[in-house]
Write a structure and sequence with these properties.
Chain B: It is a multi-pass membrane protein. Chain B: This is Amino acid ABC transporter permease. Chain B: It comes from Arthrobacter wenxiniae. Chain B: Keywords: Cell membrane, Membrane, Transmembrane, Transmembrane helix, Transport. The complex is a heterotrimer of chains A (289), B (285) and C (214). Chain A has 289 residues and is α/β, with parallel strands linked by helices. Chain A is built from ten helices and twelve strands. Chain A has helices at 3-20, 43-50, 77-90, 106-111, 126-131, 172-180, 192-200, 211-220, 247-262, 265-272, and strands spanning 53-57, 60-61, 65-67, 74-75, 96-100, 117-118, 132-148, 164-168, 185-189, 206-210, 225-227, 233-243. In chain A, helix 3 (77-90) crosses helix 9. Chain A is elongated and about 60 Å long. The relative contact order of chain A is 0.17. With 285 residues, chain B is mostly helical. In chain B, helix 3 packs across helix 9 and helix 4 packs across helix 6 (135-161). Chain C is an all-alpha fold and 214 residues long. Chain C has one domain (2-213): MetI-like (MetI-like fold, Orthogonal Bundle), CATH 1.10.3720.10. The longest helix of chain C has 33 residues, at 8-40. The termini of chain C are far apart. Classes of the chains: A alpha/beta (289), B mainly alpha (285), C mainly alpha (214). At the B-C interface, helix 1, helix 5, helix 9 and helix 11 of B face helix 3, helix 4, helix 6, helix 7 and helix 8 of C.
Chain lengths: 289, 285, 214
C-alpha cells in the first residue's frame, strides 16, 4: 500500500546518511515488516529498538496539542504529526509517549535528550534555530488579530495604535506587536482564553496569536468575535524540533513529512484538527528547513 | 471563642432593636444577592452552554486528580519543610554563634521572598545547574525553601517557650546536647506548635495552586485553566469550581487546626504546673 | 553586577508598582479588616454571620484563584476596574480576613472587668469602647499585624498572574530573556527583602510607640 512511497524516500535517506555519517556502510535499505531499518546507532534505529517515539507536545493548546479534559486523549495537529512519525518508525501510530512541553522548556527538553522530537506549536525563529534543528515546516499560518465583532475600528496592525492588545507571556506574537504597532499597549495573561474573556469584557481591544488558535476561540463563542483581515505577520512556520546536530534524523523527519503530504495523510491530519475551524483543501507547506 | 464577651446580655428593648436591624440587613443582603444573580444570569454565567462541559464525568475526574495533586505536593512539601524546619530550629537555638547567625539569615531571607518568585527561580535556574527535575519537584522545592524557614522559626519559638527545667533535667539525666534537643525538647515543641503547623499546612496547600504557572504539573488550578483553554466559554465556571475545591479542603484543614488548638488548651489547663506531671499528661493524650 | 545596573530601571519600575500595591493593600485591608472584626464581635446575629462567611470564604481560597475570578468575574456584574486596581482590590479582599482575625483576637485580650468598671463609672458603651478597649486591643495587635503585612508584601507578587507588571512579573520576564537568570533573581529577592524589612521595622517602631502609651 504505502510501501511504494517508502522506497524513494529511503533512497534519499540512505544517501544523506552516507553523506553525513561515517557509519552508513551497512546500507541495509528496506527489509520487510514492520518498517525499514536504519543504520545501527542512528536516532531512528534507537527509537525503533525502544518501540516508542518520545514526543514533547503541548497539553493545553487546542487544535495543536491538547489533552482533551473530558476523555484524557491527546488531540491536535501536532499529535497527528507525532502519530504519522510513530507509524512510520514503529508500524503503529499509538507507539508514542507524550511528554508535556511548555514554551519555556522546549529547548531544554531537546538539549537534555528528554524527548526525541518536540512538536509543540513550535514556531521557527532565527533565535531558536541556533539551539534547535527544525524539520518541516508542517504548517504555515499567519499571526492574526481577533477583535470584537461589533468593533470596526481595527482591521490591520496599524489600527492598533493606542489600543491595547492581549497575548500570553513568552509568546512570539508579543514581540511582533513591538515592531508592528509600537504605540499599542500590550497586556499579557497566561492563557488565550483569558485574553478572549478580556476582549469580551472590553478590557483589551484585540487578541493576537496564530490564526488557527484565534479561529478556534471564535468558533466556540459564536457571534462574539471576528478575525481582522490584516495580519500581524504573514508567514509563521511550525516545524518539528529535534536535537541540534543530528542531521540524519533531521533529514529523516523531512522525508516523513514529505511522504505524508504526498500520500494524503497530512491532509487527513489537517482535516480532523485545524480543518474543523478553517476547512478546505490546503496546500501543504514546502519542506524547506 | 464567645464572640461578644465584652457586652452585657441585651435588655428587651435592645433585643427588639437588634431584631429589627437583623431583619433589615437580612433583607438588604437577600436583595443584593438576587440582584447579583439576576445580572449574572443575564450575562450568561449560568447558561447551559457554559456549564455543558461539566456534564461529562471525565472533566470531574481531571479536576479530582488535580486536587489530589495539590494535596500530594502539599504533603510532600510539608514533610520536607518539617525536616528542614527542625534542622533550622536546632541551628537557631544552637550555642554556636556562627550556626545561629547562618540559620537566622536563612529564615529571614526565605520567609520574605514571595513563593511565586521562588517558583520561577527553581524552574528557571535549577535546570541550568544540571537539576533535571519535573515541575512537581520545582514546586516542592520552592515550597520547602519557603515553608522550611517559617516552620524553623515556629519550632524555635516552641523550644524557647518550654520551661528551662526541661533541658536542665534532661542534661542532668545524662542526655547529650543533641539528645536533649531531639528527644526531649523537639517532641514537646512540635506538640505545642501543632495548631500553628496545621495553619502553615493550609498556607502550603494554597501555595500549591501557584504551580499552574509552570504548566507541567496538573494541579487543580492548572486543570481548571486547561478546561478554560479547551472550552473557552467556560473559563469562569472552571475557575469557580476550582475555588470551591480549594475552599472545601482548606475548611476541613481549618477545622483540624481548631480542634488541635482546643485540645492543646485543654491540656494546658488540665496539666498542673510541675514539669513532671505535665509531660505525663502529654504522653497519655 | 553590570547586568543588574542595566536593568535598574526595570527593577525600579517593578518596585514602584509593588510598593503601590502594598500601600493600597494596607489601607484597604486595615479598613475592611476592622469593619469585619467589628461585625464579628457585634451583638447582631446577621452581622456576625456575614463576617464569619466572608472570612471563611476569602481566607481559604488561594489568592491566584481569587485574582483571576475577580479580574474576569466582576465584569460580568458590569463592574470593571483596571488590572492594577483589580489586583489591588483582590489583595485587599484576601488580606482583610487575616487582619480581622488578628484584631478580633486583640479585642478578646481585653478583660471584660475593665469594661464593666468603666460602665459602672458612667461611660457609655461606645465611649468606653473607644477610650478603653480599642487602645488596649490595638496595642496588642500591632506586632501580629506586622506579620500579616509582611505576608501581604509577598502576596503582591500574585498580581503578576493577571498581567500587572510588578517586581515578580518583570523578574520572570528578564530572567527568561537574560543569559544569567540567577543574578536577576538575586536582585529581585533583595528588593523583596528590603520591602519586608521596612514593613517589619515600621511595625516594630509602631509597637514600641503604642507600648509606651500604655
Amino acid at each position: 500500500m504505502k510501501r511504494a512511497h517508502l522506497f524513494p524516500a529511503l533512497a534519499i535517506m540512505g544517501a544523506l546518511v552516507l553523506g553525513t555519517t561515517a557509519c552508513g556502510g551497512s546500507g541495509t535499505a528496506a527489509t520487510s515488516h514492520p518498517t525499514e531499518t536504519f543504520p545501527a546507532g542512528s536516532t531512528m534505529a534507537k527509537i525503533q529498538q525502544r518501540g516508542k517515539v518520545i514526543v514533547g507536545v503541548k497539553f493545553d493548546q487546542p487544535l495543536f496539542g491538547v489533552k482533551n479534559p473530558v476523555t484524557g486523549k491527546m488531540e491536535g495537529l501536532d499529535i497527528e504529526m507525532a502519530k504519522i512519525l510513530a507509524k512510520d518508525l514503529t508500524g503503529d501510530e499509538n507507539n508514542v509517549d507524550y511528554i508535556e512541553a511548555v514554551t519555556k522548556n522546549r529547548e531544554a527538553f531537546l538539549e537534555q535528550n528528554k524527548v526525541d522530537v518536540v512538536i509543540a506549536s513550535y514556531a521557527v525563529t532565527d533565535q531558536r534555530k541556533k539551539a534547535v534543528s527544525f524539520a518541516g515546516p508542517y504548517l504555515e499560518s499567519n499571526v492574526a488579530l481577533m477583535v470584537r465583532k461589533d468593533d470596526q475600528s481595527i482591521n490591520k496592525p496599524a489600527d492598533l495604535a493606542g489600543k491595547s492588545v492581549c497575548s500570553t507571556t513568552g509568546a512570539r506574537a508579543s514581540q511582533l506587536i513591538g515592531t508592528a504597532a509600537p504605540s499599542a499597549k500590550l497586556v499579557l495573561f497566561s492563557t488565550y482564553s483569558e485574553c478572549a474573556q478580556a476582549l469580551k469584557d472590553k478590557r483589551v481591544d484585540a487578541v493576537t496569536t496564530t490564526e488557527a488558535i484565534l479561529l478556534g476561540i471564535e468558533t466556540q463563542n459564536p457571534g462574539t468575535f471576528r478575525i481582522a483581515s490584516g495580519h500581524l505577520a504573514d508567514s509563521e512556520e511550525f516545524a518539528i524540533g529535534s536535537a541540534k546536530g543530528d542531521t540524519a534524523f533531521h533529514a529523516y523527519l523531512d522525508e516523513v513529512l514529505k511522504k505524508a503530504m504526498a500520500d494524503g495523510e497530512w491532509q487527513k491530519a489537517y482535516d480532523v484538527t485545524i480543518g474543523k475551524v478553517k476547512p478546505g483543501k490546503v496546500t501543504p507547506p514546502k519542506i524547506v528547513l | 471563642m464567645n464572640n461578644h464577651s465584652l457586652f452585657d446580655p441585651a435588655g428587651p428593648r435592645t433585643r427588639r432593636r437588634h431584631l429589627i436591624l437583623e431583619i433589615v440587613t437580612g433583607a438588604a443582603l437577600a436583595g443584593l444577592a438576587l440582584l447579583v444573580l439576576a445580572t449574572l444570569t443575564k450575562k450568561g454565567v449560568f447558561s447551559a452552554d457554559a456549564w455543558a462541559p461539566f456534564a461529562q464525568p471525565g472533566l470531574w475526574k481531571l479536576l479530582g486528580q488535580g486536587l489530589l495533586h495539590n494535596i500530594a505536593a502539599a504533603a510532600v512539601g510539608m514533610v520536607l519543610s518539617l525536616a528542614v524546619g527542625c534542622l533550622l530550629a536546632f541551628g537557631l537555638v544552637s550555642t554556636r554563634t556562627f550556626l545561629r547567625r547562618l540559620s537566622r539569615v536563612y529564615t529571614d531571607v526565605f520567609s520574605s521572598i514571595p513563593l511565586l518568585l521562588l517558583l520561577y527561580f527553581t524552574s528557571l535556574v535549577l535546570p541550568n545547574y544540571g537539576l533535571r527535575l519535573g515541575d512537581f519537584w520545582f514546586l516542592v522545592i520552592a515550597l520547602t525553601l519557603y515553608s522550611g524557614a517559617v516552620i524553623g522559626d515556629l519550632i524555635r519559638s516552641g523550644i524557647v517557650a518550654l520551661p528551662p527545667g526541661q533541658s536542665e533535667a534532661a542534661l542532668a539525666l545524662g542526655f547529650s546536647q543533641v539528645g536533649t534537643l531531639v528527644r526531649v525538647l523537639l517532641p514537646q515543641a512540635l506538640r505545642s506548635m501543632s495548631p500553628a503547623l496545621v495553619s502553615q499546612l493550609i498556607i502550603l496547600f494554597k501555595g500549591t495552586a501557584l504551580a499552574y504557572v509552570l504548566g507541567g504539573y496538573t494541579e487543580l488550578l492548572r486543570s481548571a485553566t486547561v478546561i478554560g483553554q479547551y472550552f473557552t466559554q467556560s473559563l469562569l465556571q472552571a475557575q469557580f469550581v476550582a475555588a470551591v475545591g480549594f475552599l472545601i479542603v482548606n475548611v476541613l484543614l481549618g477545622v483540624l487546626a481548631d480542634s488541635l488548638e482546643r485540645r492543646q488548651r485543654r491540656l494546658e489547663t488540665q496539666a498542673p504546673s510541675p514539669a513532671g506531671s505535665d509531660s505525663l499528661v502529654l504522653q497519655t493524650a | 553586577m553590570e547586568l543588574l545596573f542595566n536593568h535598574a530601571g526595570d527593577f525600579g519600575q517593578g518596585v514602584l508598582v509593588t510598593l503601590g500595591l502594598v500601600v493600597y493593600g494596607f489601607l484597604g485591608s486595615i479598613i475592611l479588616g476592622t469593619i469585619l472584626a467589628a461585625l464579628k464581635t457585634s451583638p447582631i446575629r446577621v452581622a456576625r454571620a456575614v463576617s464569619s462567611c466572608y472570612i471563611l470564604v476569602f481566607r481559604n481560597i488561594p489568592l491566584p484563584v481569587q485574582m483571576v475570578l475577580f479580574v474576569f468575574g466582576l465584569p460580568q456584574l458590569d463592574i470593571q476596574f483596571s488590572l492594577y486596581s483589580s489586583a489591588a482590590i483582590a489583595l485587599v479582599l484576601y488580606t482583610a480576613p487575616f487582619v480581622a482575625e488578628t484584631i478580633r483576637s486583640g479585642l478578646n485580650t481585653v478583660d471584660r472587668g475593665e469594661l464593666e468598671a468603666s460602665m459602672a463609672l458612667g461611660f457609655a458603651p461606645m465611649t468606653s469602647m473607644r477610650l478603653l478597649v480599642l487602645p488596649q486591643a490595638l496595642a496588642t495587635v500591632v506586632r501580629p499585624l506586622g506579620n500579616v503585612y509582611i505576608t501581604m508584601v509577598k502576596n503582591t507578587s500574585v498580581a503578576a498572574l493577571v498581567g500587572v507588571a510588578e517586581l515578580t512579573f518583570l523578574t520572570d520576564k528578564l530572567a527568561v530573556d537574560e543569559a544569567s537568570p540567577f543574578l536577576i533573581f538575586a536582585g529581585s529577592a533583595i528588593c523583596y527583602l528590603v520591602l519586608g524589612l521596612a514593613v517589619g521595622r515600621l511595625g516594630a517602631a509602631l509597637d514600641r510607640k503604642v507600648a509606651f502609651s500604655r
